[in-house]
Amino acid sequence: METRSLYIHIPFCLHMCSYCDFCKVFYQKKQVDDYLAVLKKELASLKIDLPLKTIYIGGGTPTSLDDEQLEWLMDIIKPYISNDTKEVTIEVNPETLDCYKLDILKKGGITRLSIGVETFNDDLLKAINRKHNCMQIKRVIDYAHRLGFNNISIDLMYGLPGQTIEDIKKDLDIIKLLNIQHVSYYALILEDHTVLKNQNYLPLDEEDEANINELIDERLAQMGFIKYEISNYAKPGFESLHNLAYWQYDNYYGVGLGASSKIDNRIIEHSRNLNSYLKFQDITTELCNSKEETMFNHLMMSLRLVKGLDLKAFEKYYGIKVLDLYPRAINKHLSLKTLVIEDGYLRCTKDSIKLLNTILLDFI
User: Fold this and answer.
1) pTM, full prediction
2) Helices 311-318 and 291-302, interaxial angle, to 10°?
3) Domain range holding 353?
């Protein structure tokens, strides 16, 4: 399988959010300079020989970098952007952006912004240790449009401490007023070693989560957003091409601290040891999955998509039909109507996609 997507991890943050377990460290100028130098070396060592279709810069907070460092990062990715590149995304936090940084991103080849909003409620933002406010979010989106960005995504969360159903409805009302093309809306997941987990905060129960999810689905659909993955909604033509590569189980490169690559049946993972990375030591580990493991992972990821698993593509990759591979599980769920086969895809229904983890147990 060709490898046409690239993920770049920038682990630096100006502050730590109470729910986040991503690979991150506090910003220090000298460390960032050293990191970017190593990042450039690592990219060169991959010897990428096919034009990339998607590039995604995540974090951390990539826009915690100062202007000069952000320009350097844009220079690093420039050789990998071509006419074949359909999408270049960067994650941004509102409080770290101004019109000058946005201009650097635009001139550097960024075509898509992913803004970490979480909620428009200023009190809730303070409770999870976010440093921006609702006004800054609106200002960033306005600046971005003035500079010519026409593909803007926002990340939101529900199930936050103290968040009510009315708070969520107000967030949805604000979305309606914004000129954005994509929404990622996630339930809060309590990860180990995060502040909220250590404070014994209790997440939503299944019934409340299902009701909120249904509300979000309905309200975003009324605004013209099409749900195309469990937690992702897009205006027509604005689906995240890079994330689709993950869900379709395509190959991708991952560079930087804590990043991972998927090359056919190989998963290559970076450690989170910053000191080793800055010394350009080999801090990757490689796991070779069996064919059976790879096929299950492909099925698992693709069933997250509303359109589901491409049956012809699966057979082309692995030389076996998914119906022959999992006859008992598929026939059970076809009879239960929790899975359907339509237009060459195996997929969940609108209601059963919420039960995906339970469905997948039968395939294991």
Assistant:
1) 0.93
2) 170
3) 305-364
